[in-house]
TrEMBL record:
Residues 1-21 are annotated as: Disordered. Residues 1-10 have a biased composition (Basic and acidic residues). This is Uncharacterized protein. It comes from Streptomyces kronopolitis. Keywords: Membrane, Transmembrane, Transmembrane helix. The chain crosses the membrane at residues 29-49.
Length: 71
């Protein structure tokens, strides 16, 4: 069987397929680092600075109902 020069050249140019699991693992690791290093501390600092839902306990209050502003 003879080989043509076109099929021989194409065979040498082929690259092995990239392993997507390696890329996905690296992407997951980088996103985990970003979350741990930036998102989590920002959320914890935000909770220490202020309470956006006003969840303080008031023993003298009969109810915590806040009437709607549009009524």
């Amino acid at each position: 069987m003879t080989r043509s020069r076109w099929t021989d050249a194409a065979r040498h140019r082929r690259r092995p397929p990239a392993r997507p699991t390696d890329r996905n693992a690296m992407r997951t690791f980088v996103l985990l680092l970003v979350y741990i290093l930036f998102i989590t501390p920002a959320g914890l600092l935000g909770r220490l600075v202020r309470d956006p839902m006003a969840r303080r306990w008031n023993r003298s209050a009969a109810t915590y109902w806040i009437p709607s502003a549009d009524r």
